[in-house]
Amino acid sequence: MTDAPAISRWFKVDQSRIDAFADATDDWQFIHTDPDRAAQTPFSGTIAHGFLSLSLLSAMYYDALPFPPEVTRSVNYGFDKLRFLSPVRAGARVRGVFRLIKSDDATPGQVSNTWSVRVEIEGTDKPALIARWLTRYYTDTPTD
């Protein structure tokens, strides 16, 4: 394990991405989808769904970390911790910062990883979210 984090490129979270996420999840709360109404709130405009910021983790992960050639498949195993700390305003850019904190290969053909994850918002000190993300790599061929 290395102490150096893996950092993704910046991802733009514009209103069209927020609206597409609202359509996909049936979550059209005005704070996300109505710029005029949202402008009257303390946010002064629309913000991304917290789960939209979370859903970008996979793309950020693939961007920041090479996929090991011996891995035949990988899965999300879950989260031990997840906190949404700061809103992502429409038009902002975010990136993922990943640090491997534990790797367990005790089960043959399987590697369980625990990642410390932070989604940063460009130009701000406070991250959008922090999480402890659990993933699994499989190096064997699946059997039925």
Instruction: Note the gap between the termini.
Output: 33 Å
| Rg estimate, integer Å | 17 Å
Structural class, by secondary structure, is alpha+beta
- CATH architecture descriptor text: Roll
What is the percent of helical residues? 10-25%
Task: Provide a descriptive summary of the structure in words.
The chain contains five helices and six strands, in the order ββαααααββββ. The two termini are 33 Å apart. The model has no long low-confidence stretch (mean pLDDT 94). It has one domain: Thiol Ester Dehydrase, Chain A. Helices cover 23% and strands 36% of the residues.
Which tags fit this structure?
Thiol Ester Dehydrase, Chain A; alpha+beta; 144 residues; six-stranded antiparallel β-sheet; single chain; 5 helices
